[in-house]
Amino acid sequence: MTGKFSILQAEPEHAGQRMDKWLADRSELSRSRIRALIESEAVRVDGDIVTNPSAKIIAGAEYAILVPPPASDTPEPENIPLDITYEDDAIIVVNKASGMTVHPAPGSRSGTLVHALLHHAKDSLSGIGGVLRPGIVHRIDKDTSGLLVVAKSDKAHQYLSKQFARHSVNRQYICFVRGQPKPREGRIESRLARSPHDRKKQSVVRGTWGNMEASETGRHAITNYKYIKGFGSSPKASVGTAQFSKIVCRLETGRTHQIRVHMAHSGCPLIGDPLYGKNRAFNTAKNEGELILRDCLQTFKRQALHAESLGFIHPISKEEMFFEAPLPDDMKVLETALTGLNI
Which of 210, 144, 214, 143 is nearest to 172 (CA)? Predict the structure, then answer.
């Protein structure tokens, strides 16, 4: 490992002081950065590695700090398997697995879809998205599975981007939610903005649910939904109301967390959603079906959301393209467990 060395000599009056504080006071590094360097074995005392940030300073000892070079902002190709649904000279349609981030970001500097695409497509990706997002026309959340289209040229990127801007791309999602939407089929319109209480979350701008003209704050978001199937019977609702539902959602806009926010705000949060859901389990399960579902919910660690289909006009041939991706295995298992409530 190459990097920058800092050498510090401890004087007698320094003896007994905490090492992380002493090093931070005498370097350009913060105390938290010093602790991280110590824990990563980048600090030595008289040539010996030290890993305890609270260790006491030894008079006369020589302290060496190795600060590694900053990580490059340019993602490098990584040999990560991809599920390619379709590919030609202009586009790639990928069935993204749950757990894969689309492009590099703080906390996701490797293992992203971009890293995998750079290995798969080599230099054949559009540059409009910049070095961090080559080829990326649109995104889906890390823990959402399913289809997205990638551009292999700037011309393809521009043409696809115009379709997304016109909301003419057909994007359909399957999700499993708690409760049952009322009405069973509808159109949700609101404005979405970052939550004032949690920066990781989006929220419906006050007053804009069904009335986007009520505020100029946030971005307009439109979700069309349809109830497909119900599972179980909700004990806290009217007779015949499902405890869980399978829903298909068609997006007109593609805002961050749009389906997750809209379904939660309508009283039907996605199963497994760590931000917007209420991950209650059957702690008082009374029959075999509830026991099976309880165990399934305990191991299902993501929002139950899958980008099932994607349709658009091909940027070069101008043909109508349509692709479908079956439910991934974890959501199939979940659906099977939910179906057990109806037996």
Answer: 144
* Tens digit of each residue's pLDDT (9 = 90 or more) over 86-113: 999 999 999 999 999 998 887 777 899 9
Stated as kind and residue range, the H or E segment containing 185 is strand 185-194
Pairwise CA distance, residues 115 & 103, whole Å: 8
Q: Are 102 and 140 in contact (CB under 8 A)?
A: yes
Q: Is the pTM of this model over 0.90?
A: no
Least confident of 25-29, 62-66, 71-75: 71-75
Phi, psi of 153 (to 5 degrees): -150, 160
Element (H, E) at 6: strand 4-9
Q: In angstroms, rounded to a whole number, what is the distance separating the alpha carbons of residues 201 and 164?
A: 23
On whether the CB atoms of residues 24 and 34 are closer than 8 A, the answer is yes
Q: Is 141 a catalytic residue?
A: yes
Give the residue-averaged pLDDT of 14-35. 91
In sign, the C-alpha dihedral spanning 211, 216, 222, 227 is: negative
Q: How many CB atoms lie within 10 A of CB 41?
A: 11
Residue given tokens 């990706």 in the structure block: 125
What's the rounded mean pLDDT across residues 4-9?
84
Q: Could you tell me which residues come within 8 angstroms of residue 26 by beta carbon, excluding any fewer than 6 positions away?
A: 8
User: Among residues 141, 143, 273, 330, which one is catalytic?
Assistant: 141
Residue count (the chain): 343
How many CA atoms are closer than 13 Å to the CA of 317, on its beta-carbon side?
9
Is residue 72 scored above 70 in pLDDT?
A: no
Distance of CA 285 to the CA centre of its chain: 31
Q: How far apart are CA 176 and CA 178, in angstroms?
A: 7
pLDDT in tens, 218-246: 999 999 999 999 999 887 777 789 999 99
Q: Which two tokens stand for residue 222?
A: 């439109």
**What is the arrangement of strands in the sheet containing 43-45, beginning at the earlier edge strand?**
4-9, 62-67, 43-45, 48-49
